[in-house]
Write a structure and sequence with these properties.
The protein has about 450 residues and is of the alpha+beta class. It folds into two domains: about 5-220, PmbA/TldD fold (2-Layer Sandwich); about 225-449, no CATH class. The chain is about 25% helix and about 35% strand. The protein is built from nine helices and 19 strands. The protein has helices at about 5-20, 75-90, 125-140, 210-220, 240-255, 255-260, 320-330, 360-365, 415-420, and strands at about 25-40, 45-60, 65-70, 145-165, 170-185, 190-200, 230-240, 280-285, 305-310, 315, 335, 345, 350-355, 370-375, 385-400, 400-415, 420-425, 435, 440-445. The strands form four sheets. The protein has a six-stranded antiparallel β-sheet with strand order 3-2-1-4-5-6. Strands 7-14-15-16-19 form a five-stranded mixed β-barrel. A hairpin with a 7-residue loop joins β11 and β12. α3 runs parallel beside α4 (about 210-220). The longest helix has 18 residues, at about 5-20. It is globular and about 70 Å long.
């Protein structure tokens, strides 16, 4: 039997035992993972680790009460105790009128899609060491790079199994290959650091390690001589693809069913309205081959599908699991996500803001003065009001050209206005689970000197 089959059989048996112990309904999720990582600095090994883990979570429901317990002990006596504790807890907790597993007619059938999300080739330790070495060596070979904060290469593999008393049973697995480096440029008080990294499902899809190293070096060198720009109001701010995905995450956070149901989202009453510029479309696609957040079904066994969250600026849907859908009197969108230690909650998968029709160069060509952002920091974003204020660094724009590097800057606005003043470039690349091209947002405040 495969590990997938073993895990699925185990949790199916666990669900059956919970039912026999008095649960009205139950579901269980199991996760198995293996990871290997190598880190080095200036050519010297700092770690070479392998980790293997297994965990499972059991949820039992008695009436409108539910309890969740988790364990990494998969022995028979440990599982007996897990069931006993879960049932006892469910009898003691308060009612939750919105909890519950899916009805049998809601779950996906056994023909759920098979996605391209697993590379069967595990790299050797020697391969990881070579990847990290090539990446760091390439960065250090660039003139002006004076030190390294280290390079790392890693690989991981995971298996997920989900079963419920409504008849659902399913498994999937995935892999990750990653490599990255961080270096410093300059000397003394005139030093700057930056990094580059890549993560792919298949090792063959990784960009060249030398390219990653040179990119990190180039980014660090370009930051030398940074200074504060003048304070400016109502100016364009351009977000590099390294940070533009944050705009998508702010949107998905605001349309998450949990926030909407609690009334803590600045978009809670905007369904079907124009919330972004007319050219902006945001897509969520759980079935993307080689997508870093792909999955063939959601964490409650419901079918999931590609859908536009925002279409030409108009809000199309909330991001819902079963519980938040019940709270809002709607139907789940198949966005349930879950760990082993808690109940399901809504979350997006592979999400991207669709590419526009202008190049990044054309996007800034008419900017008399503005700010090109390559890094943001701080947590100054309110999902209740939409107020946005974050520290940032990057480059000052003058007369349509990059003028000089800047740091210690604060950018501010309100997401409701920012979304409507947004223009997308044509340079979309799929590097992360959430992706966006270069984005221009007009009318922001930049606080410098």
């Amino acid at each position: 039997m495969t590990a997938d089959t073993d895990a699925l059989s185990l949790i199916q048996d666990l669900v059956d035992r919970a039912k026999k112990a008095g649960a009205d309904a139950a579901d269980a999720v199991a996760g198995l993972s293996t990871s290997v990582s190598h880190a080095q600095r200036l050519g010297k090994t700092e770690k070479l680790e392998r980790d293997e883990s297994q965990d499972l979570g059991l949820r039992v429901l008695i009436g409108k009460k539910q309890a969740i317990v988790s364990s990494n002990d998969w022995k028979a006596d440990g599982l007996d105790l897990l069931v006993e504790r879960a049932v006892a807890m469910a009898k003691a907790v308060p009612d939750d009128v919105y909890c519950g597993i899916a009805d049998p007619d809601q779950i996906v059938g056994p023909d759920y899609p098979t996605l391209e999300m697993y590379d069967p080739e595990e790299p050797s330790a020697e391969t990881l060491i070579a990847r990290a070495k090539e990446t760091e060596d390439a960065a250090l070979s660039v003139e002006g790079i004076t030190n390294s904060e280290g390079a790392e290469a890693s690989w991981s593999h995971f298996r997920i199994a989900l079963a419920a008393s409504n008849g659902f049973a399913g498994t999937y697995e995935g892999s990750r290959h990653s490599v990255g480096v961080s270096v410093l440029a300059g000397t003394g008080t005139e030093m700057e650091s930056d990094h580059d990294y890549a993560t792919k499902i298949f090792g063959a899809d990784l960009p060249s390690c030398a390219e990653i190293g040179r990119n990190a070096a180039d980014r660090a060198l370009k930051k030398l001589g940074a200074r504060k720009p003048p304070t400016a109001h109502g100016v364009p701010v351009v977000f590099d693809p390294r940070v533009s995905g944050g705009m998508v995450r702010h949107l998905t956070g605001a349309i998450n069913g949990s926030s909407v149901a609690r009334g803590t989202s600045f978009l809670k009453d905007r369904m079907g309205e124009q919330i972004m510029a007319a050219g902006i479309t945001i897509v969520d696609d759980p079935h993307m081959d080689r997508g870093l957040a792909s999955k063939p079904f959601d964490a409650e066994g419901l079918p999931n599908q590609r859908r536009n969250l925002v279409d030409q600026g108009v809000l199309q849907t909330w991001v819902l699991d079963l519980r938040t859908a019940r709270q809002l009197g709607l139907t789940s969108t198949g966005h349930a996500s879950r760990g082993t230690g808690g109940p399901p909650g809504p979350s997006t998968t592979n999400t991207h803001l669709a590419a526009g029709t202008v190049s990044p160069e054309d996007l800034i060509a008419d900017i008399e003065r503005g700010f090109y952002v390559t890094s943001v920091m701080g947590m100054g974003v309110s999902m209740i009001t939409g107020d946005y204020s974050r520290g940032a660094s990057g480059f000052w724009i003058e007369k349509g050209q990059i003028a000089y590097p800047v740091n210690e800057v604060t950018i501010a606005g309100n997401l409701k206005d920012m979304f409507l003043a947004m223009t997308a470039a044509d340079d979309l690349e799929f590097k992360h689970a959430t992706n966006a091209p270069t984005l221009r947002v007009d009318g922001m405040t930049v606080a410098g000197t």
